[in-house]
TrEMBL record:
<dbReference type="InterPro" id="IPR001401">
    <property type="entry name" value="Dynamin_GTPase"/>
</dbReference>
<dbReference type="GO" id="GO:0005874">
    <property type="term" value="C:microtubule"/>
</dbReference>
<dbReference type="GO" id="GO:0051301">
    <property type="term" value="P:cell division"/>
</dbReference>
<keyword id="KW-0132">Cell division</keyword>
<dbReference type="Pfam" id="PF02212">
    <property type="entry name" value="GED"/>
</dbReference>
<dbReference type="GO" id="GO:0003924">
    <property type="term" value="F:GTPase activity"/>
</dbReference>
<feature type="domain" description="GED">
    <location>
        <begin position="523"/>
        <end position="614"/>
    </location>
</feature>
<keyword id="KW-0547">Nucleotide-binding</keyword>
<dbReference type="InterPro" id="IPR019762">
    <property type="entry name" value="Dynamin_GTPase_CS"/>
</dbReference>
<keyword id="KW-0342">GTP-binding</keyword>
<dbReference type="GO" id="GO:0009524">
    <property type="term" value="C:phragmoplast"/>
</dbReference>
<feature type="domain" description="Dynamin-type G">
    <location>
        <begin position="29"/>
        <end position="297"/>
    </location>
</feature>
<comment type="similarity">
    <text>Belongs to the TRAFAC class dynamin-like GTPase superfamily. Dynamin/Fzo/YdjA family.</text>
</comment>
<dbReference type="InterPro" id="IPR045063">
    <property type="entry name" value="Dynamin_N"/>
</dbReference>
<keyword id="KW-0493">Microtubule</keyword>
<protein>
    <recommendedName>
        <fullName>Dynamin-related protein 1C</fullName>
    </recommendedName>
</protein>
<dbReference type="InterPro" id="IPR000375">
    <property type="entry name" value="Dynamin_stalk"/>
</dbReference>
Amino acid sequence: MESLIGLVNKIQRACTVLGDHGGEGMSLWEALPSVAVVGGQSSGKSSVLESVVGRDFLPRGSGIVTRRPLVLQLHKVEGGSEYAEFLHAPRKRFSDFAAVRQEISDETDRVTGKSKQISNHPIQLSIYSPNVVNLTLIDLPGLTKVAVEGQPETIVQDIEHMVRSYVEKPNCIILAISPANQDIATSDAIKLAREVDPSGERTFGVLTKLDLMDKGTSAIDVLEGRSYRLQHPWVGIVNRSQADINKNVDMIAARRKEQEYFESSPEYGHLAHKMGSEYLAKLLSEHLEIVIRQRIPSIIALINKTIDELNAELDRIGRPIGTDGGAQLYTILDMCRAFDRVFREHLDGGRAGGHKIYGVFDHQLPAALKKLPLDRHLSPSNVKRVVTEADGYQPHLIAPEQGYRRLIDGSLGYFKGPAEACVDAVHIVLKELVRKSLIETQELKRFPTLQSDIAAASNEALEKFRDESRKTVIRLVDQESSYLTVEFFRKLQNEPDKTQEKNPDKNPNPQAPNAERYTEVHFRRIGSNVSGYINMVCETLRSSIPKAVVHCQVREARRSLLNHFYAQIGRKEKEQLGKMLDEDPSLMEKRETLAKRLELYKSARDDIDAVAWK
Ligand code: GDP
Ligand code: MG
């Protein structure tokens, strides 16, 4: 039995550590039973708790002393000395219970201020002692009827609301404290308990101050359940009076005195074995065990549900990665491959973006070629200038060989611009695809450092491919200058002179070619010949430049974008690899919290599993 309740204490404690005060939604906290003390102000709630515990430690006095819920966990330990521990000050052991009382009151003030305000936030206190049974008890502020000086008007409802929030939970066992020197019909405790637990199956009626009853009156009708019937038997209690407290009557003596009171009482003597604080503690403990046993299946179901949720969340944000070099390298390569896959999908199709490269070849390049200032370069006046310059002091005799070469070289020079622009345009498209792919690679999201490392490596590789591509397309153009297509000019010689036919007026003497050698018609014909040749070359380049660009940039990017990067990480030390896998600190923190929660729930499940079959 004690293992069972000890277990409950453990789980409840875990829940409180996790910030799980039974706020919103169904929580583990709510699935577990607890015992709350309810009653009017000064009805003896704190005194009952103290005598169940067997220790003086709760702040007492007149007026509103208990202003925050106190969650009190009793842990029975075998032998050793007694001590208390607060959740808000872990590892600080209190063996002086007067100091515990002081700490409760200080901690109350810390949250509520020194006013008579109240707070819903519980103080959690554990007591380890050989003299207690395992129990979780909750001390609550007393129900009042009017707001006293210094309290807000709403205090009466505020307290009732807070108390209700604890006792209305179906797993809360209610210790309804009523003073025997008041009519039971006026008991605030019974009134509230009846509201939240109409069947009375989780309400224990406790009658205090039996010793303070008027002479000649008796509580026997209440104690035997005739005045107000409850599912469970009433328990009568005699706590220490204020005078006893002032005289520092200790708890052991008080219990002995209480027992003597019942044993020697003419009215209650026959009930002595079912009265008093010790009996109340035993009764509660037995009841808790029954309730917990009933709840084990639903508690396990709740824990399993939470474990599933935590696992799903951990999967979503990514599991922790191994800390050894091999695991790190594996993770990095895995991420790189995932990124590479996305990047290829962009190029090959499946994801948008690759078509933009074709756009460069199909629109941008032809448009740029069309805009070249060839007409100006091959205008009769410029042709004349170039040819004359090439001739030097000796004008050409038949055909201006040098002039043709210069005009062709000059024209070809214009092609370098569009060729390089094509390379650059494709470079920009590829860079954009890298950027998109990095964003779209889900796995990489958690590793911003690795993400930027891959970005840098990819861009560096793309730049290298671009440089190679530039060299190649310039070479294509240069090749055209190095060796001209002779056939083109041979064919020209055999063709009739179209220029002449078109401009008969300007050539009054078609029969005299030598005479027209230095006329505008002559230079116009040269220009037109060169233009014909350049058009032919332009056609060739329009298809060979894209081929070179794809070969040097697109194909390489697809094939070996991260090759250099792979070689680099292969040489890296474990420490450097770890740095690359640096995650967003908030994400790491979140994962750690989740993992911790998961562990707690798992160990709670193991514990419960272990006792469920006992
Ligand atoms: P709470 O406000 O409900 O927590 O009540 P306390 O436990 O602080 O008790 C209020 C006052 O009533 C204190 O002075 C106690 O000594 C006194 N008191 C409580 N129970 C008894 C009892 O059974 N007999 C006597 N004589 N005094 C009691
Ligand atoms: Mg109190």
